Amino acid sequence: MTTFLRKRIVSSAIPLVVVVLGVFVLARLTGNPVDLYLPLSATPEQRAAFSAANGFDQPILVQLWDYLGQVVQLDFGESLRTGQSAGEMVLEAFPATLQLAAVTMLIAIVGAVLIGSLAAYRPNSLADRTSSFLSMTAASIPDFWFAIMGVLVFGVSLGILPTSGVVGGPEVWVLPIATLLIRPFGVLVQVVRGSMVAALSAPYVKVARSKGASEPRVVFGHALRNATMPVLTVAGDLTIGLVNGAVVVETIFGWPGIGKLMIDSILQRDFAVLQAAVLLTAVTIFVLNILIDVCYALLDARVRQAVPA
Amino acid sequence: MNPLPSTATADPEAATGEPALAVENLTVDLHTPTGTVRAVDEVSFAVHKGRTLALLGESGCGKSMTALSIVGLLDPVAEVVGGSVRAGGKDVLTLSRPARKKLAGPVLSIVFQDALTALNPVQPVGRQLGEPFRIHHGLSRRQAKEKAIELMRIVGIPEPRARARSYPHQFSGGMRQRLLIAMAVALAPDVLLADEPTTALDVTVQAQIMQLLRDLQVERDMAVVLITHDLAVVAERADDVVVMYAGNVVETGPVREVFGNPRHPYTRGLLDSVPERAEKGSPLPAVAGSPPELSKIPPGCVFQARCPLARERCAEERPALTATGSGRAAACHFSEELASV
């Protein structure tokens, strides 16, 4: 297991370096911060002074070299806008995104397992066809449209939910989570159903019944664990999508997470913050992928042994 | 009771009292997309404790379907439409699902063919073997594990305590079949059905598994229903035999008598095709043709298309299972002719 983890970590380091380089270059293509931060009337001397103070007068390769030197010391520079440390700003915003993603995935997985198993228990029954139709619909709805319609109906017309912000009780969570939830939930119901139909027709399920096992024991004790592999793969992908999808939802609902921070820092040419935010997102995805692999190994002894020691 | 005479006559003592399993006129329909077909047609037999009955027939003759309807594990496309199955003093077909589950393990138990897929790949085998005790005796996880280890020792798994933590894929085919048998006999059922328990195994391992089944049967005084297409296994291991063809019983009786002097042309054809019986140098005789599709079973005798004795009467009238001697019966209009051959 440790060898396996070490290998994964080493092989993931290269994409991380590529991300750092890519973001560094792409961020500078969004425009020159000097134009944004200094008034139009600023003199060339003032502009040169601002550039020099922030290192923008150096050739890009020199800037990159300096930046990499800082990153390896975990120094991500300072925000142009606030002067605060970029690393700190990103770490402050991150928990809000994580909470949103974690709650969403928890609801999606638990709900999908229950509904998908129920649908798979009697294939082609009314319950199965209803859940197939609804989950397919859910998986096909664009999240930004759903978010705007949610705000319109529940926030504006009915006035029962806040349109944005994080101040207030549990009701502030409803629309952001519903928006993030709808696609993963729909997709997961379909995946759980598919793999449960296969698992429930396996011979070991017959054997479990021949021992007199109750139906819940058969479904959740024997079939479900065998059906988790494909579900885990898709759930992992969807979680990664959530971390990215947070950009849309956080912007629409004014949720102070890393997605909103990212958008704000692009609009304000706040390179240091943008770079730190993207790097943290990349690291998160990298950690998630390792967690998924570890889960595979924990769930199935065959995977555990397939890993070369 | 039924037109079928009691099948157990070799040992009159064992045949007294109520049989451990009595199947009467069991009829099973298969609902396929192209229509309903009869997979098992009025099958009857009985087994007493300590006795072995073989259900013999080609693939698709309905022998596995018969076994699955007895233990209540038919797929949803199959439906029991008639007959009764008595075990544990009850007609199990009339019981509610929970009541039936109570019998699954302590009264009726089944061993399947392919032990690799029949064991759950993601659970340690000790946990799977302990499950019957947890379900029916309410034992704790730890107590059940001790029982499982004991079972593994009984069926001859080396180092059972350490191996209880292993997963099915870490065992050989023969060991997996031993585990499956251990799980089926865990609660010393009255009746053990074994559906081709050795088909997937090497010949040497087959003999060991059959011996294990025999030992467990004697030790736990179980009635065994052995489902097989292997004539040698039937001859060696069974007391009585039920020969099935296209969902029907064509001949039944004590193995020694049925095999010694078959009274149905199908049984005779099967026995003639055993290599050891054939004359050296001459081509091996075989039953010509193949069994009818279930949707195309003719109105008369089910075997008429392949029967060397078939005549007009066979196409019109289905022969009933009629006594042909003490404890045996055959479904052929001309079984008398075979007796003299």
Summarize this structure briefly.
Chain A has 13 helices and no strands. Helices cover 79% and strands 0% of the residues of chain A.
Please describe the topology of this protein.
The complex is a heterodimer of chains A (309) and B (341).
Chain A: H1 2-29, H2 33-37, H3 44-54, H4 60-71, H5 86-121, H6 126-140, H7 143-157, H8 171-200, H9 203-210, H10 215-253, H11 258-267, H12 271-299, H13 301-306
Chain B: H1 12-15, E1 21-32, E2 35-47, E3 52-56, H2 63-71, E4 78-87, E5 90-91, H3 97-103, E6 108-111, H4 115-118, H5 125-136, H6 141-154, H7 160-163, H8 173-185, E7 191-195, H9 203-220, E8 223-228, H10 231-237, E9 240-245, E10 248-254, H11 255-260, H12 265-272, H13 312-316, E11 322-325, E12 328-330, H14 335-340
Parallel strand pairs in B: 3-8, 3-9, 6-7, 7-8
Antiparallel strand pairs in B: 1-2, 1-4, 4-5, 9-10, 10-12, 11-12
Describe this structure in words.
Chain A: It comes from Prauserella cavernicola. Chain A: It is found in: Cell membrane. Chain A: Residues 94-292 form the ABC transmembrane type-1 domain. Chain A: InterPro entries: MetI-like, MetI-like_sf. Chain A: Keywords: Cell membrane, Membrane, Transmembrane, Transmembrane helix, Transport. The complex is a heterodimer of chains A (309) and B (341). Chain A has 309 residues and is mainly alpha-helical. Chain A has a domain at 96-269 and 280-306: MetI-like fold (Orthogonal Bundle), CATH 1.10.3720.10. Helices cover 79% and strands 0% of the residues of chain A. In chain A, α9 (203-210) crosses α10. The longest helix of chain A has 39 residues, at 215-253. Chain A starts with a helix and ends with a helix. The relative contact order of chain A is 0.15. Among the domains of chain B are: 114-188; 263-340, no CATH class. Chain B contains 14 helices and 12 strands. Chain B has helices at residues 12-15, 63-71, 97-103, 115-118, 125-136, 141-154, 160-163, 173-185, 203-220, 231-237, 255-260, 265-272, 312-316, 335-340; strands spanning 21-32, 35-47, 52-56, 78-87, 90-91, 108-111, 191-195, 223-228, 240-245, 248-254, 322-325, 328-330. In chain B, the strands form 2 sheets. Chain B has an 8-stranded mixed beta sheet, sandwiched between helices. In chain B, strands 2-1-4-5 form a 4-stranded antiparallel beta sheet. In chain B, β4 (78-87) and β5 form a beta hairpin. Chain B is globular and about 65 Å long. In chain B, 48% of the residues are buried. Chain A binds chain B through residues 202-204, 206-214, 217, 222, 225-226, 299-302, and chain B through 71-73, 101-106, 109-110, 112, 114, 117-123, 131-132, 135-136, 167, 169-170, 180, 183-184, 186.
